[in-house]
Structures are given as structure tokens and as C-alpha cells.
Amino acid sequence: MEILSDLKTFSKILEDKGYGGLYREKDGTTGTISEILKDYLSNSTIKKITGNDQLEMLSCLGWIKNSEVRWECKLLVKCIGAKFFLDKIMFEKIDQDGKIENKFEFNNVTIVTALSIKGAVSMLQKREEKV
To answer: Whole-prediction pTM value?
Structure first.
């Protein structure tokens, strides 16, 4: 289910759920969700992008037990016109060598149904205990 939101609403809801940290987009753009989406809108107009585009934003959620192992969060966001919707959230546990140890994907999510960061981390820890 797609829920299209303007930039301000989209960013605010995700930030309220704890996704307010810094992100890096595939092209190297860094900043908050709002900053990256603003940059995307200004650049996509110049590039004449057709409107079914997907942004992949990556953020580090934190390091595990003072090691080099970390959890990363990827948000896949689609843009139609100047409206956005969340397509997928992925959480990856990355080892000290940069390899993915564990991965969880949440498909068909919306900004409304997406778990908060705290909720997601709690779920990831529980799932990992079962593995």
C-alpha cells in the first residue's frame, strides 16, 4: 500500500519514529532525510527524471558491544512527482570486515506502519537470539 506524502510530512513522521540521524544516499549525498530529499528534488528536476525513481539511504544505527560490528539501516524511498513513499526498510548487521552477517527486510511498509527505530532494534535482537 502506497501512502504518498510531501517532503515535510514524510520526514517528520520518520524522524518522530527515530529515523532522524544522518544518512548517505547512493550518489554520496549526506544529511538528514529531509536534506537528502530536498537535494533529490532539486537535482531530479534538472535531470528530468520521469517520476518512478527510488532513493536508497543508508545510516548506521550503532555499534555492537564496543566492537567493529554494527547495525545499518537502509530506507528505500520512491518519489512520484514531489511526493514520497517508503518502499522497503532493510536492517543489516555488518561485521568488522564489512560483510553482511545478518539481514532483515521489511517490504510493503509505509511511514505509518514502519516500526520505530527502538521497536526495530528490539525485534532484531529477539530474532538474532533465535538464530
So the answer is: 0.79
pLDDT 10s digits, 94-115 = 888 889 988 889 888 888 888 8
Indicate the number of domains in the chain: 1
Q: What is the pLDDT of residues 48-58, one digit of tens each?
A: 444 556 788 98
Distances (CA, A) of 5 to 55, 64, 84, 92: 15, 34, 5, 26
Domain housing 69: 7-130
Report residue 23 as a C-alpha cell.
544518512
Q: Are 40 and 23 in contact (CB under 8 A)?
A: no
Handedness of CA 61, 78, 98, 113 (dihedral sign): positive
Is 2 within a domain? no
Domain assignment present for 1: no
Report residue 8 as a C-alpha cell: 515535510
Does residue 14 lie in a domain region? Answer: yes
